[in-house]
């Protein structure tokens, strides 16, 4: 009887673990409403980086441009990124909608590299 309870506990724990991991995966790769289309399969924490490592990233972006159009979205790591392709789309974004595209997104790496005023930190070493 105790062996049966131990097996049920192990199976229940595995089922709950698989369910939790599945929900985490689903929420990490789900696109927000209104996001441009893009590749579907994204790995948690890596995003679409594995798809870009199979061949030259430029060729992969060319394939995605044919498939999804000039504006597409994909995950680089866990960050959703919108990619603009083509002269007309880039000009419209950067010239006609300059206010929306005039700032960089918040990034912890950017904070580490720069000081609070946006200037590069000194990389001098004393010997």
From TrEMBL:
Keyword list (alphabetical) reads: Heme, Iron, Membrane, Metal-binding, Monooxygenase, Oxidoreductase, Transmembrane, Transmembrane helix
SUPFAM superfamilies, alphabetically?
A: Cytochrome P450
GO biological process assignments? hormone biosynthetic process; progesterone metabolic process
List the InterPro entries.
Cyt_P450, Cyt_P450_E_grp-I, Cyt_P450_sf
Q: Does the keyword Heme apply?
A: yes
TM helices/strands, residue ranges: 7-27, 33-51
Name a GO molecular-function annotation.
Answer: heme binding
Family membership noted in the UniProt record:
Belongs to the cytochrome P450 family.
The protein's name: Uncharacterized protein
Organism in which the protein naturally occurs: Pomacea canaliculata (Golden apple snail)
Question: What lineage does the source organism belong to?
Answer: Eukaryota, Metazoa, Spiralia, Lophotrochozoa, Mollusca
